[in-house]
Fold this sequence. Notes:
Phosphatidylethanolamine-binding Protein, 2 helices, about 170 residues, about 30% strand, 5-stranded antiparallel beta sheet, mainly beta
Amino acid sequence: MGASPADQETGSMPLTLRSPAFADGERIPDRFARTGDNLSPPLDWQDAPEGTRSFLLIVEDPDAPGGTFRHWAVFDLHADRTGLEEGAGRPGSGVHHGTNDFGSAAYDGPEPPEGHGPHHYYFRLAALDIDHLDVDPGRRVGEIWAAARPHMLAEAGLVGVYERGRG
């Protein structure tokens, strides 16, 4: 994905998000699935826009049978951060978690219904113009994203694919 004409004029690059564990559009390894080790994958980002004071990351599955299912929210990540290490989604990891649709204030990885086919997991990173998002850590992922929208300077995404029973 290339820089937009505006980015080329100013010399800035758009915010990017990647994982050393899987490429954009590729299969998420089993260790990051809820039925595997249920570890959050390592993530790296770069080129945050000027004025970034914090980051928010969510993971959601729009292919879920009942509509978009949200697996993780982590927020109030300091602007100096350039990533999250593997397993940062566990409780007690020192980051603020929202409550996912499993009811956990932590990362819960892919767990699509067996036989439902491949699901797409959208990792969405937002650069915010505030240090602290005014939400309780126990708030639901969707509520946290909605509260952050007015403060978003940029957004980057990464998509991983997962299907139960596939190797």
